[in-house]
């Protein structure tokens, strides 16, 4: 039997949909999902059918989140549905991958042996371009340095039917919003800010690469049935208050873990005062509160955006099915927050965490009290969160006022366009030149400093300083690898105003600047068009279609490459309890995926598991000595780097465990934070609580993410102890495991560990990984 025939039989055995089945489902109107996939149609008729089945079963009004999620159920008639409890089997419409995570996702897909992706999928080159000299120069340099990786992704995309957006095309989430997101879509993306698409009324969820592989293989995707947090918006935005202030306020209310396991659903009369791209900003940064995703109901602002981006046919179809793209009257939320936009003030959050919220009017006073540097060294606007035409226009409106009074930025100032389309359009319409004139440098259409791709020269590492950005995250060292950089996040227009003033003490709503002529003036609140009056300028064509016939396409990975490495399967569970696990590190405090697997200069190794494992937990603070990347080797008793110690244990057959605090693994979707501990011999991660994506990623790679039944038991474990985890032979959903803590003095304590594994996920553990289990099913 041919490989294609085996694949087809495998799909039939699993109840997997066949490639292009979506093409014949929409009966009322055949409207393509995107211009790039004319034969893949929007499935509103199936969405409607499934919603009706579920509504009849549940016999209650549905939230918008429930309509879209339950509308994509694999088996709506029989799926058990209970918010926060059951696992749903879903059929996403499409997959999107950025280049840093796509490497490992495509390597796993190649390992699966499948010939083609089963749903429309795309790769976007945005993470590997370092900000250094400016857009064109940085892009040329990136293409040269990353040629091997770009070639791998381009040829893998061509081989397996994945669309490829070349470097320079823009940030994945802006490209998705412009071309692929639509009201009611269920999209998964290998980046935590995938929820950006919720600004166009879709349920767009960040996942690890292994989840993407499942969907690309046509296997139903599992998601714990989300709770729904409602955010009712009243009033309207005006003046200096922007969409960014909505999510900065919500982050201050819910904190970095308050949205875990939930979809945040915005509704109410205030929604109509927010542009479509503004809604995307709010949904994008919902990742910072741990939310599964965020979403807005379909309205005229979305219709306007669809029309302007060449998708009037989708807008017309959405109008026809509008009742399914808004919440039912009387629907119930698990939690309800109300925000009056008319009373909302401009906010700035930070430093070191995105949920430390301050009104802009107060941050200077707080900074003085806390000893944070007041002088702003750099202001940075753009990123996937705030790089729309409207964002650039509002920033340019501020800059134009300063220029009229003979002023330029006192701080350094950088601008990151979200896409080639945005770059070309703001160049045509003069915004880019205004931002240059005020002292700005326009960077490449890429993530850049937001993810640590910043060759910063103005300070030395360890130098205390302040930066303000319109980005989404401000964890320690995230932007420039300097732990003493105090990073604050706010709106692009506030960043621009603060960069002009050069200090956190400036409040543009009340304070005056002094012009070149010595006269004082006050900046007026910015006003700008949400969309260009003319059509968007698409700029350069940066898209590569997968060929119809890819049978002759080769995908080469050199065995001597330092950037790419084919994957070897992880070992299966040996059927025994985990005895005498050594504690690699007991982490103190916040431990994000940046702490577990740093980005920045490490991004170049994202396709080479062994090389990137040299950054394992180098940012985590060891509770034993209060230091980063310094742990005791239990055999030699010497302190050394975490990766070196893990490699020593692996070489000597010593299995190990990590002990973590609250919300372990918050932040990025990067599955390398799960692959690395598995590769270096880890067996379990035991914490007070996990961030959603990271917990799933650990399960996918055959690790045990476990939580203390009593969070106080975290204090019973010491770095010098050994642990035995019992009960794995009877491993079952909802059944706690036993953990015996063996102290060096010979005494023992027994505690209970909880888990969230379901039957499918237990099979992943037994097989050694989700990918191993997929291969078992193929056989």
UniProtKB/TrEMBL annotation:
It is an enzyme of class 4 (lyase). SUPFAM superfamilies: Aconitase iron-sulfur domain (SSF53732), LeuD/IlvD-like (SSF52016). Pfam families: Aconitase (PF00330), Aconitase_C (PF00694). Residues 523-560 are annotated as: Disordered. It comes from the Eukaryota. It is found in: Mitochondrion. Residues 523-536 have a biased composition (Basic and acidic residues). One of its GO terms (molecular function) is aconitate hydratase activity. Keywords: 4Fe-4S, Iron, Iron-sulfur, Lyase, Metal-binding, Mitochondrion, Transit peptide, Tricarboxylic acid cycle. InterPro entries: Acnase/IPM_dHydase_lsu_aba_1/3, Acoase/IPM_deHydtase_lsu_aba, Aconitase/3IPM_dehydase_swvl, Aconitase/IPM_isomerase, Aconitase_4Fe-4S_BS, Aconitase_4Fe-4S_dom, Aconitase_dom2, Aconitase_mito-like. Its EC number is 4.2.1.3. Residues 582-710 form the Aconitase A/isopropylmalate dehydratase small subunit swivel domain. It catalyses: citrate = D-threo-isocitrate. One of its GO terms (cellular component) is mitochondrion. The keyword Zinc does not apply. Residues 550-560 have a biased composition (Polar residues). Its cofactor is [4Fe-4S] cluster. Belongs to the aconitase/IPM isomerase family. This is Aconitate hydratase, mitochondrial.
């Amino acid at each position: 039997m041919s490989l294609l025939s085996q694949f087809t039989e495998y799909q039939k055995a699993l109840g997997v949909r066949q490639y292009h089945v979506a093409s014949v489902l929409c009966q009322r109107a055949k409207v393509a999902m995107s211009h790039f996939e004319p034969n893949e149609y929007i499935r509103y008729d199936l969405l409607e059918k499934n919603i009706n089945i579920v509504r009849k079963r549940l016999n209650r009004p549905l939230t918008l989140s429930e309509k879209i999620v339950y509308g994509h159920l694999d088996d709506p008639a029989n799926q058990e549905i209970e918010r926060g409890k059951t696992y749903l089997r879903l059929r996403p419409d499409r997959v999107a991958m950025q280049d840093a995570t796509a490497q490992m996702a495509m390597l796993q897909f190649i390992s699966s042996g499948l010939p083609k992706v089963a749903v429309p999928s795309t790769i976007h080159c945005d993470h590997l371009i370092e900000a250094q000299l400016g857009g064109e120069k940085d892009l040329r340099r990136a293409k040269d340095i990353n040629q091997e990786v770009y070639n791998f992704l381009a040829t893998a995309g061509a081989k397996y039917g994945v669309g490829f957006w070349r470097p320079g095309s823009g940030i994945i989430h802006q490209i998705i919003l412009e071309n692929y997101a639509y009201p009611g879509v269920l999209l998964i993306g290998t980046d935590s800010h995938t929820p950006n698409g919720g600004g166009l009324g879709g349920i767009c969820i960040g996942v690890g690469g292994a989840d993407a592989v499942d969907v690309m293989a046509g296997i139903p995707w599992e998601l714990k049935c989300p709770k729904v947090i409602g955010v009712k918006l009243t009033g309207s935005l005006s003046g200096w208050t922007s969409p960014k202030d909505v999510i900065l306020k919500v982050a201050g209310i819910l904190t970095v873990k308050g949205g875990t396991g939930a979809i945040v659903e915005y509704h109410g009369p205030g929604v109509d005062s927010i542009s479509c791209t503004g809604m995307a900003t709010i949904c994008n940064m919902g990742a910072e509160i741990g939310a599964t995703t965020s979403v807005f109901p379909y309205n005229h602002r979305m219709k306007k955006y669809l029309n302007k981006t060449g998708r009037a046919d989708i807008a017309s179809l959405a109008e026809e099915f509008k009742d399914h793209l808004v919440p039912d009257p009387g629907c119930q939320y698990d939690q309800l927050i109300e925000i009056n936009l008319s009373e909302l003030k401009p906010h700035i959050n930070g430093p070191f965490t995105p949920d430390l919220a301050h009104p802009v009017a107060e941050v200077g006073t707080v900074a003085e009290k806390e000893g944070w540097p007041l002088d702003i060294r750099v202001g940075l606007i753009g990123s996937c969160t705030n790089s729309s035409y409207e964002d650039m226009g509002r920033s340019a409106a501020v800059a134009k006022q300063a220029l009229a009074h003979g002023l330029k930025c006192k701080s350094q100032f950088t601008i990151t366009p979200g896409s080639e389309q945005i770059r070309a359009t703001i160049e045509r319409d003069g915004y880019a030149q205004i931002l240059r004139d005020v002292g700005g440098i326009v960077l490449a259409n890429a993530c850049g400093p937001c993810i640590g791709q910043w060759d910063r020269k103005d300070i030395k590492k360890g130098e205390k300083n302040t930066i303000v950005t319109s980005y989404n995250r401000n964890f320690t060292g995230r932007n420039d690898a300097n732990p003493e950089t105090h990073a604050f996040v706010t709106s692009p227009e506030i960043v621009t105003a603060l960069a002009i003033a050069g200090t956190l003490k400036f409040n543009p709503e009340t304070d005056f600047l002094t012009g070149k002529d010595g006269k004082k003036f006050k900046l007026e609140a910015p006003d700008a068009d949400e969309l260009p009056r003319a059509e968007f300028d698409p700029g350069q064509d940066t898209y590569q279609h997968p060929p119809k016939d890819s049978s002759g396409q080769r995908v080469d990975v050199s065995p001597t490459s330092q950037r790419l490495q084919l994957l070897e399967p992880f070992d299966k569970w040996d059927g025994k309890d985990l005895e005498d696990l050594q504690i690699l590190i007991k982490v103190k405090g916040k431990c994000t995926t940046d702490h577990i697997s740093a980005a920045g200069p490490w991004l170049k190794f994202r396709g080479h598991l062994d090389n990137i494992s040299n950054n394992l937990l180098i940012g985590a603070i060891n509770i034993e000595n209060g230091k980063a990347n310094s742990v005791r080797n239990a055999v030699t008793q010497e302190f050394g780097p975490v990766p070196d110690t893990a490699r020593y244990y692996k070489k000597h057959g010593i299995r190990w465990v990590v002990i973590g605090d609250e919300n372990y693994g918050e932040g990025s979707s990067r599955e390398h934070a799960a692959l690395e501990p598995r590769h270096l011999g880890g067996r379990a991660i035991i914490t007070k609580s996990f961030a959603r994506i990271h917990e799933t990623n650990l399960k996918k790679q055959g690790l045990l993410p476990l939580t203390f039944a009593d969070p106080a038991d975290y204090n019973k474990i010491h770095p010098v102890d050994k642990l035995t985890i019992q009960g794995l032979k009877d491993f079952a959903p909802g059944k706690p495991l036993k953990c015996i803590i063996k102290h060096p003095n010979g005494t023992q304590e027994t505690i209970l560990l909880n888990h969230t594994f379901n039957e499918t996920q237990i099979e992943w553990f037994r097989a050694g990984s989700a990918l191993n289990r997929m291969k078992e099913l193929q056989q």
